[in-house]
Amino acid sequence: MEKYRFLQHTADAKFQAFGDTLEEAFINAALAVCSLMWDIDKIEIRVTQDVIVKAKDMKQLLVNCLEEILYLFDAKGFLLASVKDLNIEQAEGNYRLSACFQGDYFLEKYKVYGGIKAITYNEMKIEKNNHFLVQVVVDV
Length: 140
Prior knowledge:
The chain has helices spanning 22-35, 58-76, and strands at residues 4-7, 13-19, 47-55, 78-91, 94-105, 118-119, 125-128, 132-139. By secondary structure, it is of the alpha+beta class.
């Protein structure tokens, strides 16, 4: 199964990410976001960032997770290469996502070729059929 695919969009970037589980679809969405900014296959895994985000609903959880990637890049120069141990839990009407982001800090050897201004709710989908699908539009 493909991890993600980019779709036509007039002004922004739009993608669908897939997974056998919701967690795998979220991981692949994270990789799709990063692939818009750098070549994830060229980033060495030398640093980990433990991440916890919370939300009122699943769409907000996806936005918060993907915005954490943007925050870590903007604030710390962290380039995500992979996601490990992503776990989604629901308790008392709220959602919680924990994960280990793996990658490296921005160094001259890495090329960053784009930026993302924001993750949007526009056209966002989280669906389950035979597999999980998440669809996201990002403001570039």
